[in-house]
Amino acid sequence: AMTVTDAQDMPLGGTALFSGAATIRVELQSNPLVLYGDAAIDVDFGAGQVSGTLQNFFGGTAQDRVADYAGAITFAGGVPEQNMALAYVGSLSTAGVALGFDGTLAAVFLGGPVAAIAASDLSAVVTHNGSAQNATVIVVGEGALTPPADLPDPS
């Protein structure tokens, strides 16, 4: 298991592209929907920006079938730091199911040096076919830091 990145190991510059997975569980009275998808998270430590996309989802439907879901969820945040907030928004759909997302992920970096990111919204509210439902959204990704380019010698 990877530990949470210590403050002294947080990069002051450079970028990282994390690739991984996302899972979403929407609590329905009869049968929860569980979805799985791909996650791509782009972190620019120098510019203080985080962005990403969750897409290519598949999972259950209300008819107990497995289906592909169209659409995507995007997220963004400011200064990359521990316990940062990443605002997310988007929609996913398949035959008979329309899901709307608008919330905040809490994210942490893992490893020393940084080698992964984990983010979650354990108290999400998702719109399912027009009605609000409790849900969880979990995102994990692995990657490596690309250090900033050396600055040219001004002399």
Describe this structure in words.
A hairpin with a 5-residue loop joins strand 6 and strand 7. The mean pLDDT is 93. This protein has no helices and nine strands. Strands 1-2-3-4-5-6-7-8 form an eight-stranded antiparallel barrel. It has strands at 15-26, 33-44, 49-60, 66-77, 84-94, 97-110, 116-128, 131-142, 145-146. Helices cover 0% and strands 65% of the residues. It has 155 residues and is mainly β. The protein is elongated and about 55 Å long.
Please mark out the parts with pLDDT under 50 across 5 or more consecutive residues, or reply none.
Answer: none
Distance between the termini: 47 Å
Strand residue percentage: over 45%
Radius of gyration: 17 Å
DSSP summary: helix tally: 0
Largest sheet: 8 strands, antiparallel, barrel
What's the helix-strand series? EEEEEEEEE
Task: Describe the structure using short key phrases.
mainly beta, single chain, elongated, 155 residues
List the helices and strands and how they pair.
Blueprint: E1 15-26, E2 33-44, E3 49-60, E4 66-77, E5 84-94, E6 97-110, E7 116-128, E8 131-142, E9 145-146
